[in-house]
């Protein structure tokens, strides 16, 4: 049989065929359905869908015949693909000079009749054909020709769909920012490891993240953060061997999968290599930025035979190191810790789809100190507070019961911020808390925390306006608490956002003051209605003269500006007395009351008032 000539653009055609990643894959029901249909519609014993590769014809689906491929030189379809727009019909192969001496014609299976319709890709390249064969000479009438054409068009569509899915999942497997793999790539690798456990030595799974990535973002903005992540990925990639996998999981978190690791002793060596790779100087805007990483690692199958469990262990070890509760190696990692990957996934599930309510709220009383001297304001009586803004209130604090534990907000709020989930979370808290507070007796007001990350996203005023309208809570009884992080890098946006909330009549508190890069100038520059002094300052009262001096300055400035001062985290009577002496307006802390569920708010308030009133008596 003379070899068929090659189609025009054969190299491109082959490249397109290869890109589909369909050659040598398992049979699929869609394609088998078409060949079955071809047999029955055209009344033939044999039908197949084959693809013409460089040197072979490979069958994706076949009926009535054996084998999965033939040499290209023996393929009738090698001729069919030369004419992408028509059905090739060989009425009697013995009479056709191209096929008369074909082994399948002269011998078994005794081909006499062949008809093949080209199967095309999106751009019209004929990649293969749907074809039928009979043992006797035959013709196809117009209707049969049409059927074969239609079936081939169906296969073409299925093939193109296969291609599209392929492209999408390829794209889903890389992280566009760093070029590292994505979580999907890691999942695929873990699934593979489950199917085919490592044979030579073990496979190491390492998780690492950058210490202080938030600060880098705060200081150098998003562009600086992105450049840092790209640099990290480049350096990590250099330490890898060809089969190893680098994946960016989220934010500044990367995972590495390294194959062929003989012993657990090799783990510290790999970790050392990674740290060395990070040690070189890296600068942003001419400023040297240290790239310090934390690593958690585990070995498959030595640590566990289940790849997912190994990942979870590496995760828990990283988490332990970050929190300083373990050195992150060997067996001393706290297995109870779910690790951050798990947490993040649970959080995503908790928040999406909307409408689910996995969280609860706790409320912690904030009690006015000055007013009590005049007249206590118990929960169930109604004298309006003397001062604007309301002396007493409750701060709503989110609680996340998950897997029988209560996960502290400090663990999942930053995660929600990085994962872009914070707007869902804050919105939920705001709406829920406003609905609850609307039922409280006057003058009890509500404070709600809104994350700095959320302010940067914009739309805060709209959200607050909506929450007030939905709940019926008067604007004057709501205070939004913002930390100064907002002010550092969202200066103009923050000013506008705070002003628009104040214009609505909502209070805005500067939260955690004295905790971070606190600056008294924030109080001047932004229209806050309250300042909340961080527990860090309160805790040192009585021991650290400086803390007392700072607090005195804050109180003085606050009062000059007409901004009341709240002290957070009051735990001892002594602290309360000093705060009182310094002229602090309100107090919040475990001494007064712990955060409690909605239905215990009244008792908590009575208790808190009791503590403050008692202190007043002592103070005299
Ligand atoms: P924060 O806004 O400074 O909230 C006060 C935190 O101090 C609360 O921790 C509270 O339980 C704790 N606390 C109160 N009194 C004392 C005390 O006397 N001693 C000590 N050691 N701690 C005390 P919590 O509930 O764990 O919240 C931690 C942080 O998480 C909050 O700090 C806030 O920044 C954030 N957060 C809490 N709920 C939300 C929320 O609904 N949305 C947002 N965006 N952030 C929230
Ligand atoms: Ca707060
Ligand atoms: Ca605070």
Could you describe the 3D structure shown?
The structure is a single chain. The strands form four sheets. The chain has an eight-stranded mixed barrel, surrounded by four helices. It has a six-stranded antiparallel sheet with strand order 3-2-1-6-5-4. The protein has a four-stranded antiparallel sheet with strand order 8-9-7-12, with helices on both faces. It contains 22 helices and 22 strands. By secondary structure, it is α+β, with helices and mostly antiparallel strands. It folds into three domains: 10-172, Beta-Lactamase, CATH 3.30.450; 183-337, 2-Layer Sandwich (Alpha-Beta Plaits), CATH 3.30.70.270; 344-619, TIM Barrel (Alpha-Beta Barrel). It is elongated, with a radius of gyration of 35 Å. Mean pLDDT is 87; it is low at 326-336 and 382-390.
Structure, briefly:
The protein has 620 residues and is of the alpha+beta class. It has 22 helices and 22 strands.
Instruction: State the CATH superfamily name of the largest domain.
Output: EAL domain
Would you report the number of β strands?
22
Q: Provide the domain count.
A: 3
What gyration radius follows from the Cα positions, in whole Å?
Answer: 35 Å
Mean model confidence by pLDDT: 87
Percentage of residues in DSSP E strands? 15-25%
Largest sheet: 8 strands, mixed, barrel
Question: Which terms summarize this structure?
Answer:
Beta-Lactamase, 8-stranded mixed β-barrel, 620 residues, alpha+beta, 6-stranded antiparallel β-sheet, Alpha-Beta Plaits, binds ligand C2E, 3 domains, TIM Barrel, binds calcium ion
Topology, please?
Elements: H1 10-19, H2 29-42, E1 46-52, E2 56-63, E3 69-71, H3 77-80, E4 88-90, H4 103-106, E5 113-120, E6 126-134, H5 142-172, H6 183-195, E7 202-210, H7 213-239, E8 245-250, E9 253-261, H8 266-279, E10 283-284, E11 287-288, E12 293-300, H9 307-323, H10 339-351, E13 360-368, H11 370-374, E14 393-402, E15 405-407, H12 409-418, H13 422-437, E16 445-449, H14 452-457, H15 460-471, E17 478-483, H16 485-489, H17 491-504, E18 507-513, H18 521-525, E19 530-533, H19 535-539, H20 545-561, E20 565-567, H21 573-582, E21 586-587, E22 596-597, H22 601-619
Parallel strand pairs: 14-16, 16-17, 17-18, 18-19, 19-20, 20-21
Antiparallel strand pairs: 1-2, 1-6, 2-3, 4-5, 5-6, 7-9, 7-12, 8-9, 10-11, 13-14, 13-21, 13-22, 14-15
Helix pairs in contact: 2-5, 7-8, 9-10, 13-15, 15-17
The protein binds ligand C2E and calcium ion (2 copies).
């Amino acid at each position: 049989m003379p070899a068929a000539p090659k189609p025009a653009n054969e190299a491109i055609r082959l490249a397109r065929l290869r890109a589909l990643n369909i050659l040598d894959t398992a049979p699929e029901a869609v394609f088998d359905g078409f060949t079955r249909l071809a047999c029955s519609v055209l009344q033939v014993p044999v039908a197949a869908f084959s693809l013409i590769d460089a040197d072979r014809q490979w069958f994706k689906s076949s009926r009535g015949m054996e084998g999965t491929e033939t040499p290209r030189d023996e393929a009738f379809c090698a001729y069919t693909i030369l004419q992408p727009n028509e059905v090739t019909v060989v009425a009697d192969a013995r009479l056709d000079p191209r096929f008369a001496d074909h082994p399948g014609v002269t011998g078994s299976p005794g081909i006499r009749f062949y008809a093949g319709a080209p199967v095309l890709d999106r751009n019209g390249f004929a990649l293969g054909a749907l074809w039928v064969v009979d043992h006797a000479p035959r013709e196809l009438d117009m209707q049969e020709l049409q059927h074969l054409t239609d079936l081939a068009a169906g296969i073409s569509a299925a093939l193109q769909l296969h291609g599209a899915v392929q492209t999408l999942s390829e794209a889903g497997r890389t992280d566009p920012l760093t070029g590292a793999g994505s979580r999907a790539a890691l999942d695929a690798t873990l699934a593979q490891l489950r199917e085919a456990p490592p044979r030579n030595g073990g496979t190491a799974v390492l998780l690492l993240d950058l210490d202080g990535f938030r600060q880098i973002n705060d200081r150098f903005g998003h562009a600086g953060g992105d450049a840092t992540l790209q640099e990290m990925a480049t350096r990590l990639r250099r330490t890898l061997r060809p089969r190893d996998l680098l994946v960016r999981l989220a934010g500044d978190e990367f995972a590495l999968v390294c194959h062929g690791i003989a012993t657990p002793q090799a783990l510290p060596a790999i970790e050392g290599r990674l740290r060395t790779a990070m040690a070189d100087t890296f600068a942003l805007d001419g400023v040297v930025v240290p790239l310090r990483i934390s690593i958690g690692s585990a070995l498959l199958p030595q640590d566990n035979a289940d790849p997912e469990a190994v990942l979870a262990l590496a995760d828990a070890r990283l988490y332990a190191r970050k929190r300083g509760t373990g050195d992150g190696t060997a067996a001393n990692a706290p297995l109870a810790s779910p690790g951050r990957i798990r947490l993040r996934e649970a959080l995503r599930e908790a928040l999406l789809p909307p409408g689910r309510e996995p969280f609860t709220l706790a409320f912690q009383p904030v009690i006015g100190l000055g007013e009590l001297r005049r007249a206590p304001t118990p929960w169930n009586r109604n004298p309006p507070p003397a001062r604007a803004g309301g002396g007493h209130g409750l701060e709503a604090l989110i609680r996340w019961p998950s897997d029988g534990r209560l996960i502290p907000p400090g663990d999942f709020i930053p995660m929600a911020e990085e994962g872009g989930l914070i707007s869902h979370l804050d919105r939920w808290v705001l709406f829920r808390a406003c609905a609850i507070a609307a039922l409280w007796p006057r003058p009890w007001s509500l404070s709600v925390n809104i994350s700095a990350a959320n302010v940067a996203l914009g739309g805060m005023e709209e959200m607050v306006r909506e929450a007030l309208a939905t709940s019926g809570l008067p604007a004057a009884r709501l205070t939004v608490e913002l930390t100064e992080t907002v002010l550092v890098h969202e200066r103009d946006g923050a000013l506008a956002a705070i002003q628009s909330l104040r214009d609505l009549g909502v209070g805005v508190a500067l939260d955690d003051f004295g905790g971070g890069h606190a600056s008294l100038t924030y109080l001047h520059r932004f229209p806050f209605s309250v300042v909340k002094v961080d527990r860090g300052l309160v805790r040192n009262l009585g021991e650290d003269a400086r803390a007392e001096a700072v607090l005195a300055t804050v109180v003085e400035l606050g009062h000059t500006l007409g901004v009341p001062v709240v002290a957070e985290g009051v735990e001892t009577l002594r602290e309360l007395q000093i705060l009182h002496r310094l002229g602090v307006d309100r107090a919040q802390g475990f001494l007064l009351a712990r955060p409690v569920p909605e239905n215990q708010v009244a008792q908590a308030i009575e208790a808190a008032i009791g503590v403050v009133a008692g202190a007043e008596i002592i103070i005299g």
